[in-house]
Write a sequence for this structure.
């Protein structure tokens, strides 16, 4: 087993250890676990449910034997009558509506599974015998309005999916991962830590990682982290990225998701060593795991562009005892320093544009740079030019808008068909809109760009009048938007 395989196994083990801290009477480490302790303390009067005929005699006998008993007594009944126990829990989930009682039942199921992982097979076996879906009853619970109920259910689903011999598949898997993804977007979600914990558990498994990417999970992680969360949730969600970067294909997808700038921001503000450690481990994977060397080069460029080397230097001045963190730090430093030696000015420029973090670096106003590299903005179906135009549309930062407008003007000035290309891609309209921007620097650069568009047109008309071709028209190709 390699060092990284050993590391990931250690992290996986830590997840289970943290899960155990939520079993009563251990200390709670999240809002859900605090609520679970309150739920456990409020015993349910099962006799009243029996008297009102809301549960059967059989279910009453089973639930009372599973509830207020020692773990040893509970283990004995589960071993003796596993299918009967599963049936009772599912019956009560289906027929009891009161939130407080449903919370109690789900917490009891979660505790039973936490006591012994192999008990997930009790529900699996019952579903097989009954020819029913093991997932249906639990996935239906995710539609309830009570936050504790749905998140406690989510914990149970994650345990069933991760601890069972059979994997969750198909529509059931997509539904659950989509639910987790959407929970990341819930404003001020008090159970976000529990959502992140469920994701950590699920993404330990390769098939689940790929399925999460298919439901657009990466962009949700990026957005959630970019919006600001607690350091604990930061660590948990970056862990999700780290685990996914062990798959080369997923590492390449993460490379294209603007993850690197966001992680660099987190690293620059990190006060907890565990956050620093997981960010550096993720960066190392992004430099090691992609199969295509082009992705490795682009990742290194993005890290250099985000000033990661400066942050690495600051870390070198701190006292760090963790040998793995030191190893990752040194590996990243050596790799980035080597990549800097091979950088061309256009590599740096391209990396800056793709990062979306434009600033007045020297290349933007270098006549030599534009004369030698303007044709490269047309490569890959005008990839760089399209990004510049997109930044004019979506950015709110005056600096980014100013630099992007300037570069579009320089492209028009130096590229023979620049005006036509920019117009076909919608760039002229975006530049024109900036003429009324609140920031004077943005208005200035937009005005210069518009002047270059117009001057380019006058030069073209003058040339046509002096040297018309046989048809009187210049053949202008089209641009694929």
């Amino acid at each position: 087993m390699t060092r990284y395989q050993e590391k990931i196994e250690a992290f996986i083990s830590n997840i289970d250890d943290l899960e155990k801290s939520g079993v009563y009477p251990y200390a709670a480490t999240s809002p859900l676990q605090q609520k679970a302790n309150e739920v456990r303390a409020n015993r349910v009067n099962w006799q009243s449910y029996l008297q009102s005929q809301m549960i059967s005699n059989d279910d009453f006998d089973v639930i009372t034997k599973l509830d207020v008993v020692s773990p040893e007594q509970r283990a004995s009944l589960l071993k003796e009558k596993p299918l009967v126990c599963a049936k009772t829990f599912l019956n009560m989930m289906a027929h009891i509506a009161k939130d407080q009682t449903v919370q109690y039942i789900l917490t009891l199921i979660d505790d039973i599974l936490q006591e012994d992982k192999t008990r997930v097979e009790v529900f699996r076996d019952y579903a097989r015998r009954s020819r029913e879906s093991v997932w249906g009853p639990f996935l239906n619970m995710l539609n309830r309005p009570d936050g504790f109920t749905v998140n406690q259910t989510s914990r149970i689903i994650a345990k069933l999916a991760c601890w069972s011999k059979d994997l969750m598949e198909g529509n059931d898997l997509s539904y659950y991962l989509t639910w987790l993804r959407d929970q990341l977007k819930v404003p001020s979600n008090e159970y976000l830590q529990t959502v992140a914990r469920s994701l950590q558990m699920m993404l330990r498994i390769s098939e689940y990682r790929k399925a999460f990417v298919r439901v657009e999970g990466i962009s949700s992680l990026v957005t959630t982290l970019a919006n600001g969360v607690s350091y604990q949730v930061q660590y948990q969600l970056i862990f999700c990225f780290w685990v996914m970067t062990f798959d080369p294909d997923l590492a390449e997808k993460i490379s294209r998701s603007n993850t690197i700038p966001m992680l660099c921001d987190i690293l620059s503000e990190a006060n907890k060593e565990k956050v620093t450690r997981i960010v550096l481990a993720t960066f190392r994977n992004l430099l090691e795991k992609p199969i295509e060397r082009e992705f490795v080069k682009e990742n290194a460029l993005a890290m250099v562009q985000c000033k990661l080397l400066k942050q690495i230097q600051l870390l070198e001045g701190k006292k760090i005892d963790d040998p793995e963190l030191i190893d990752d730090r040194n590996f990243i430093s050596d790799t980035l320093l080597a990549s800097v030696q091979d950088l061309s000015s256009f590599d740096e420029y391209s990396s800056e544009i793709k990062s979306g973090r434009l600033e007045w670096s020297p290349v933007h106003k270098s006549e030599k740079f534009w004369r030698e590299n303007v044709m490269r903005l047309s490569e890959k179906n005008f990839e760089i030019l399209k990004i510049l135009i997109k930044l004019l549309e979506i950015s709110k930062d005056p600096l980014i808008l100013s630099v992007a407008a300037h570069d579009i003007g320089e492209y028009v000035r130096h590229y023979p068909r620049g005006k036509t290309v920019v117009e076909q891609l919608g760039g002229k309209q975006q530049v024109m809109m900036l003429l009324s921007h609140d920031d004077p620097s943005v208005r200035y650069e937009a005005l210069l760009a518009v002047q270059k568009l117009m001057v380019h047109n006058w030069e073209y008309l003058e040339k046509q009048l002096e040297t018309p071709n046989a048809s009187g028209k210049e053949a202008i190709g089209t641009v694929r938007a």
Q: What stands out?
A: Residues 20-24, 468-481 have pLDDT under 50 and may be disordered. The two ends are 48 Å apart (CA to CA). The chain is about 70% helix and 0% strand.
